[in-house]
Amino acid sequence: MGAPARYVAGRLAQGAVVIWAAFTVTFVILYLLPSDPVSIMLSQGGDSTGVSEEAESRLRAEFGLDQPVLVQYATALWRALHGDFGDSITLGGAVIGHILQALPQTVLLTAVTAVIAVAGGVGLAVAASATRSRTLRRVLTNLPSVAVSLPSFWVGMVLIQLFSFRLHLFPALGNGGFATLVLPAVTLAVPTGAVVAQVLYNNLSGALRQAFVEVLRAKGLSERRILLGHALRVAVLPALTLVGMNIAAMLAGAIVIETVFGRSGLGRLTEAAVSEQDIPLVQGVVVVSAAVFVLVNLVVDLLYPLVDPRISHRATAAS
Amino acid sequence: MSGTLLAVRGLAVEYRLAGGGTVAALRGVDLDVRPGEIVAVVGESGSGKSTLARAVLRMLSGNAAMTARSVAFTPDGETVELTGLTDGELRARRGRDIGWVPQDPGVSLDPVRRIGDQIAEVLTVHGLADRRTARRRAVEVLASVGIDDPQGRARQYPHQLSGGQRQRVLIGIAIAARPRLIIADEPTSALDVTTQRTIMDLLVEVAGREGSSVLLITHDLALAAERADRVVVVRQGEIVETGAAAQVFDAPGHPYTAELVRVAQTLEGERLRPARAGGDPVIGAEDLVKTFGRRGSRRRAVDGVSLSVARGTTLGIVGESGSGKSTTARMLLRLERPDSGSVELAGQDLLRLRGEALRQARRRIQLVQQDPYSSLDPRRTVGANIATALDAFGIGTRAERRARVADLVADVALPADVVDRRPGELSGGQRQRVAIARALAVGPEIVVLDEPVSALDVSVQDQVLRLLARLQEEHALTYVFISHNLAVVRQFCDEVAVMRGGRIVEAGPAEAILENARHPYTQALLNAVPRPKQEAHLDR
Lengths: 319, 540
Known about the structure:
Largest sheet of chain B: 6 strands, mixed
Strand content of chain B: 15-25%
CATH topology of the largest domain in chain A: MetI-like fold
Oligomer: heterodimer
Shape of chain B: globular
Mean pLDDT of chain A: 84
Order of helices and strands of chain A: HHHHHHHHHHHHH
Radius of gyration of chain B: 26 Å
Strand content of chain A: under 5%
């Protein structure tokens, strides 16, 4: 097995541990909650007093809730390994089915969001570094801290007001096609794009102060060429890491955004599952989200050596 | 103006300070560089010599304001007034007509670009070649600056090259477009001594081959006198002396130049104190071995070093970076634990001591580090810095400690009022005196001096070395003196051990080793010390 392959295998094993930890932590938290699936199911009928104790314990036995906690945990883990998170209490049907149905919408939203965030963040940072006007630079460098502090539900509503109701450019609600993606993706991209801009701008300023830039000037390069052709690539790595880390934030942000924009997706599903205490569904969503996060960050890490040749996965794999 | 490649007249540069006000870095500087000539600008840090080099290319920092009556540049029979060019016009000259060799090759190449592309870029950006031709030419340039396997190296990244190789690449960048003038700003001061010589050889050789002139910026008068045709001495922003290299060195006309000549580190200077033979050994080491790194990439930093230092003498440990000299010193101090071997300090086995016995043993051996800018606690006063060990050992009452600190400050020839100042307010030489006072505070028998003057200007180096020699006499101290600089070792040490690759390759009395080096590595180190030209050479 080659060194990069060994590295990927190692990282996948680490990822498996992360996913297992996410599963275990949610299991413990959900177990500690005062209610259990059976009482939730029974209370759905409105009045639970009518159900006999006997029927309730039969139901418990059916769900395996009368077993010791470790047995419950082992059974759940074994099933989860096979993609079986049980049936949703509130929606009925397999949890995994609901998740797989919701996932593509959210993945698409997150991907478009990431593209917008990177484009906007990089553009802002480069513009702030390139401008000669001190005033403009001050405005541009202060923009990210403003953007980060805006609550996304508010940004979403403002965008809907402006672009849907006033300008009729994009639809306000729904899942139909690319046009409906634009406003939610922009809204979701604002915080990540702002952080990317801030980090990248700081790194660009640092890169432009490095000694090698003086040699580039002495070679006769223009400031623009120094910035775009050299400094940007030196500075971009931490911003790349940040995008990977922020995928988790985007998945979490999808809960709010999908609600505001009336989209279906993993966020909406999570919101419903949590508010209805649909424990198997919550468990499934958490594990799948963790898996997405692990996968995205693995891809980001594999990109490092392409951006910065000083990073080699051979060294990391050896240790 | 014919016959002059670069003629600078009335150049002045001022820096605006952050708190308002300005400071003059250069005043009324006139400078001529003739075709094919090597002109060295010599000065200590803060003299303005680097500002001069950057001013020619208008590469000054944003807070600098430059004025000049004229900066006339005549690359091909036609004179260009550089001060009158727009930014774009000047950019077209940079790299093409004037090459630049920077100080520190470790940080001067783009870390994420292949070195071949970095050379080729000079040609493409000036439209001298298309991409493919430029690539091919880059390989030729790499070969011409002595890079082995240029074809393969062109595809490598800077971190895959040694410091010397990187400086060769940077010289390649400077000469790729065959400029008439090469400005080299301290091109060798960040390199190991043996590499310094080969890089200077290369620079002079390629300049000669291309018929280019060189404006060499350096703090090292001996290097300037060895390499340059003419020497320009700068002090506090003004030129104090200009002349043929040999003349400036042999018959300096200005007292400042005379001082620089006196302290110039050559192998001819006099010893700071007479050599003395050893009495009984006060510290010794037997077969020290230290390995760093994890499995797979283990490296023996120190590989079987034995040494012993007689009371009241100085042992110089000489070697280049990576030779293991600092690791050896750290094991003598027990700051690093050897994998095997033993250290005997005044009859005690240092490696077996524990707890309070070890703590007390540390009073006997103290350390002065290389960089006085980072070895003092910047938040505490100088007095508190010196008193650190006194406090730690609970020596004396508060009043007694204060009196002891005052004595120490007087001992290292600092004014009494530095006690209440912070290290940041002091010059490098003053800080190193503070570090020495701190080492002496607990009355050690042995002081390990790890490159104690390498971070200082030469004239300050001389003062600090004289101070160390005097203190050794007065306090009967034993020194272990770590250095890469044979000229300094020759002035200062009684015994010398030359280290390479973790081993001592040659050891013995300083005079004997330096007069009659037998190991080729010692000879290479000796050859690396500049030898000023004895008479004006007319062959250029």
